[in-house]
Amino acid sequence: MKNILVAIDAENFNAGQIEFACYLAKLTQSRLCGIITEDLSPVSDLNLLYQIPYSETFGISDSSAFPDSAAQRAKSVEAASKSCATARTPFHMLTANPASTEEIIKESRFADLLILGVNQDESERALSQAVQMIVSKAECPVILAPKEFQEIDQILFAYDESASCVYAMKQFTYLFPELDEKKLTIIEVRDQANDPKPDIEKLHRLIKAHYNNMDFHVLNGDIVEELYALLNGRKRTMVIMGSFGRGRLSRLLLPSTAELLLKNISLPIFIAHT
């Protein structure tokens, strides 16, 4: 991996997101490309909800309604640049103007990885409509970055038997071979304890070819409740999942359940889907 795209919310700058992006860039010897977005705000969410085109909502042409927006963008870019300089991480901005959701999705086509910050507002951490759209349509893997920076010591792979989940695991492995010595735990949540799992041995064979320290755990019950209980209180752990927008794991990222997880769990989530 050599090219990481990081979406910076200028109105709610998250220093932890930039520190985490720098950590991943240094780990993989990649460069960071910044793209400014104001498309993750509640105003944008309402317009996305009612399917109003971005060009008619909160964009450059409307900046007069927000006189401090340009100054805030400049301040956020300066803060990001200083953080990257301190971390000695190559960094450049793709544009000084805010990008629409559609522009971010298109830019992801030419990136190895997209990093999004989602915990900008302490009072409401559920994923915005814009973030959900970007994650579901991004043309590269996405990491939902934690608000507070922490290095990665463990990897947790949430498995639901789908091809998309295995694809996500492989994409993570290909992008981060530097983490092959970290402990990797495969978590499978089953609705019934006696569900047959014909591909488990094949999955083990795949994982063991890349990681030296692997555990496998089966949980029985509701996937959201079980994973919440497992992740609550964990630190320094990367969570991997696929099937965004389809399958049982996608429930974790819907507003009704994401609020519970994001308000209490601050872990990076790696998402890739076929």
Task: Bin the strand percentage.
Answer: 15-25%
Shape, per Cα inertia axes = globular
What is the end-to-end distance?
19 Å
Q: Order of helices and strands, N to C?
A: EHEHHEHEHEEHEHEHEHE
- Number of E strands: 10
Radius of gyration, whole Å: 19 Å
Percent of residues in helices comes to 25-40%
Mean pLDDT: 79
List the helices and strands and how they pair.
Elements: E1 3-9, H1 15-28, E2 31-37, H2 42-49, H3 69-86, E3 91-95, H4 101-108, E4 113-117, H5 129-137, E5 142-145, E6 154-159, H6 163-175, E7 183-190, H7 200-208, E8 214-220, H8 223-231, E9 237-241, H9 255-264, E10 269-271
Parallel strand pairs: 1-2, 1-4, 2-3, 4-5, 6-7, 6-9, 7-8, 9-10
Antiparallel strand pairs: 5-10
Give a quick set of tags describing it.
274 residues, alpha/beta, ten-stranded mixed sheet, 10 strands, 21% strand
Describe this structure in words.
The two termini are 19 Å apart. The protein is 36% helix and 21% strand. By secondary structure, it is α/β, with parallel strands linked by helices. Strands 3-2-1-4-5-10-9-6-7-8 form a 10-stranded mixed β-sheet, sandwiched between helices. Residues 41-67 and 120-125 have low confidence and may be disordered. The protein is built from 9 helices and 10 strands.
